[in-house]
């Protein structure tokens, strides 16, 4: 997948500020503002095609799948011009509950400081998860859980009772709260492991694989170190918040819990970007073992320009479903762009040979929402 084009109507809706969003970033493309050396330079560095460069200058958002060392890892990069002041964008992003309230986000909530159970009061488990949970045991579960979590659902929920759904929701809320609290004290090590398949998977080990390789065109070593070593070593000026969401990729609704870091780079003008925003997945109930989304807000310093370039990178470790990486029309290839950065409309046609998607774009994420290259 090489280029995603925004329709004029989508641009106007974004300009009006309808549902700016990750997990999900709705952005405004301005054809006239997108010409210039930055767009050409960043696209050439990232290996975009000539057609992609032309599309960027024509007002499109461009997105490209990157090569990864293993099949279970997926990576995307996207670039779009946002015709709005950077500070306004950051201010709206902080209000994540409004920012990510777009089609595809079924439920969402932001955690207080410190987090409390009431922050999850509106969370209800998807119906498919409620059907699957009674059958879960280590090595065979349709929901991503640790062995301890499976035991807890088995012991604390009376599945034959009329109130089973309510009991299960209460247990889920308590466990997600404990996850966030544990992470805030002990970092990534507190995220435990998934035991839904034959081979247990450590979330900390999976995340370390995402941060150990690959060069970013805008280096942010202090931020990357912080994401690895959290809660130690927060860079000066950085701010954190946490949120949860239930998002629908067109398959199973998925619960996600994310740690967001907004990092101003004004003290490092050589970086080229004004801000870096990191979205680190702490938990996902389906598909992804771990995900890291990085968005760079690069100001357009040409006279008379108020906007900026949004450059988004998303890397994920997945279940490695058949066709997940190789076939752009496969189930997995449709899910990843949604959580990685772009969320396509119901017109999810396969990518034609020229790499230019003709389908209508309903929302652009960074999931979450670039989301969800989105942030769900």
Topology at a glance:
Layout (H helix, E strand, L loop, with lengths): L2 E2 L3 H8 L21 H9 L4 H8 L3 E6 L6 E10 L3 H9 L1 H4 L5 E6 L16 H6 L14 H10 L7 H23 L6 E2 L6 E2 H9 L9 H9 L9 E9 L6 E11 L10 E10 L3 E12 L8 E11 L12 H10 L1 E2 L12 E2 L5 E2 L12
Parallel strand pairs: 1-13
Antiparallel strand pairs: 1-2, 2-3, 3-11, 4-7, 5-6, 7-8, 8-9, 9-10, 10-11, 12-14
Helix pairs in contact: 2-3, 7-8
Description:
- The protein is α+β, with helices and mostly antiparallel strands and 376 residues long.
- The chain has one domain.
- 28% of the residues lie in helices and 23% in strands.
- It is built from 11 helices and 14 strands.
- It has helices at residues 8-15, 37-45, 50-57, 86-94, 96-99, 127-132, 147-156, 164-186, 203-211, 221-229, 331-340; strands at 3-4, 61-66, 73-82, 105-110, 193-194, 201-202, 239-247, 254-264, 275-284, 288-299, 308-318, 342-343, 356-357, 363-364.
- A 10-stranded mixed beta sheet has the order 4-7-8-9-10-11-3-2-1-13, sandwiched between helices.
- The longest helix is centred in the middle third of the chain and has 23 residues, at 164-186.
- The radius of gyration is 20 Å and the shape is globular.
